[in-house]
Design goal:
The chain has four helices and ten strands. It is an alpha+beta fold. The chain has a domain of about 170 residues: Cyclophilin-like (Cyclophilin, Beta Barrel). The strands form two sheets. Strands 1-2-7-5-6-4-3-10 form an eight-stranded antiparallel barrel.
Length: about 270
């Protein structure tokens, strides 16, 4: 009996470990994603990050946020119809020191659509450090492709302040410090901080949920009404034919003689 208990303990431990892992995964999925506020001299932009699809990229970005790396940097490259880039240059176009490059997570299903944020990098797919850009167009050419295009890793999107992005993309640019597409009037990033889920986002989600539920209820009611009308208009089935007349009883066959006459002997 003692031997049986000892053998069962490792199995129980494995089961409990698996259960704990599942509970942690469920809690992570249920938790709100990180939100980040980028305060600029042209207004505030709020991002919702996606640590599920881009875990290493989000962790890297948040590390730079917590270290205060982005304070007093500028949007140093702005191309209307393409993207706005920041996160690495000071006002005199000197690059701030960074850590090592991170693995490229562009093959995560997220696309470079308008108002998404992605990591800037060099030709080496795994060279992204601190700089990022916000797409202002559908830049499908920056997406990962199965034919070998490494793409640029998207790791979140703008949830508030799209009008600020639109203002930034429309500024006048020129060649400065040997670089192209630099805003003539510097656009400073005053601070980048992690924030709680904005009330405006919560309200918008509640509105969308109520709208979806109302549409679902309306569709269900319409389907039920159509079904009821279809039943009412359905022609009545013809009455079943009367029972068939009874068949005449056949006359009984005459009884055979009890015994055939004996064959006469010769």
């Amino acid at each position: 009996m003692q031997f049986s208990t000892v053998r069962r303990m490792p199995m129980l431990a494995k089961f409990l470990s698996l259960l704990a892992g599942l509970l942690l995964c469920s809690a992570a999925l249920a938790a709100d994603p990180p939100y980040v506020s980028i305060k600029t001299t042209m207004g505030e932009i709020v991002l919702e990050l996606d640590p599920v699809k881009a875990p290493k990229t989000v962790a890297n970005f948040l590390q730079y946020v917590k270290n205060g790396h982005y304070k007093d940097t500028i949007f140093h490259r702005v191309i209307n119809g393409f993207m706005i880039q920041g996160g690495g240059m000071t006002k005199d176009m000197k690059q701030k020191p960074t850590g090592k490059g991170i693995p490229n997570e562009s093959n995560n299903g997220l696309e470079n659509l308008p108002y998404t944020i992605a990591m800037a990098r060099h030709d080496d797919p795994n060279s992204a450090t601190a700089q990022w850009f916000i797409n202002v167009a559908d830049n499908y050419g920056l997406n990962f492709t199965m034919k070998g295009g490494p793409g640029y890793a998207v790791f979140g999107h703008v949830v508030l302040g799209k009008e600020v992005v639109d203002k930034i993309k429309g500024v006048v640019t020129d060649d400065k410090f040997g670089m192209r597409d630099v805003p003539v009037v510097p656009i400073f990033i005053k601070s980048v901080t992690v924030i709680k889920k904005p009330e405006a986002v919560i309200a918008a989600e509640a509105t969308e949920k109520a709208k979806a539920e109302a549409e679902e209820a309306a569709a269900k009611a319409a389907a039920e009404k159509a079904a009821a009308e279809g039943m009412a208009q359905k022609p009545a089935e013809p009455a079943a034919p009367a029972a068939e007349p009874a068949k005449p009883v056949e006359p009984a066959k005459p009884a055979e003689p009890a015994d055939k006459p004996a064959t006469p002997k010769q």
